[in-house]
Amino acid sequence: MSRHVAIVTDSTAYLPARTMERHGITAVPLTVVLGDRALEEGTEFSTRSLAQALQKRRPVTTSRPGPEVFAATYRRAAEAGAAGIVSLHLSAELSGTYDAAVVAAREAPVPVRVVDTGMIAMALGFCALAAAEAAEAGGTVDDAVTAAEKRAAGTAAYFYVDTLDYLRRGGRIGAAQALLGSALAVKPLLQLAGGRIEPLEKVRTASKAIARLEEIAAERAGGAEVDIAVHHLTAPERASALADRLKVRVPGLTELHVSEVGAVIGAHTGPGLLGVVVSARRGGGGTAPGPYG
Fold this sequence. Notes:
Layout: E1 5-10, H1 17-23, E2 25-28, E3 31-34, E4 37-40, H2 47-55, E5 60-63, H3 67-79, E6 84-89, H4 97-105, E7 112-116, H5 122-136, H6 141-153, E8 155-160, H7 165-170, E9 187-193, E10 196-203, H8 206-221, E11 226-232, H9 236-249, E12 253-260, H10 263-269, E13 274-280
Parallel strand pairs: 1-2, 1-6, 6-7, 11-12
Antiparallel strand pairs: 3-4, 3-5, 8-9, 8-13, 9-10, 11-13
């Protein structure tokens, strides 16, 4: 973190470790609580253990980092030579992480801009990368924030889940609550909209839902230059096959990331999750489908 502007995000960005190291990005971990054990995401808790706990209906909850964790992160960045910090986090509609960062920023030894990206997973990760690239090019704190906000404006995230039950249990279901009445008869597709998880479409079978997820992602990308991330939880074959099909269908594809989500998102979506993040490098990308209804 020796450059002029330091970039901080949180563990739900799911950026590859090599990417974070290359760009000097620091990720503050959220916490997963399994029974009476509180474990930091990405360091002590495997997705296999998570899936087993969820399938056995053991209580799994998540919690934000405390302000003191952010304060220590900001202090280390300043000590390493940062003159300013941009701290980019998952949607404040889904977590109190942003609020904790804001509290810590007030006492930081250097100026800190805390940004609620309204995103999660690699939708957040792409914003952090855009900010880091702006900082590496000699940009100011304002330049890095602007780059992240532009990237967020051109980014969309879509999700297939086998069941809405885990989202319901975690209280993260938002307007998708309307789908619960017919949840047994459909396979829901969801989207991130306004920082919340919202219903997109209802499809009758898993295979049709995944095919529709692919179609939606390709439509969103259009002919623009885009980066895509395919996420999953305990569904690597599905994710790999979807990624291979998107390589063919998206002519403007620049970078493709395939990764398993961590325990924080996994605790709320359950095993079988398949997600696609489409992020335009310049401007908007294709036309996003509207919400189901």
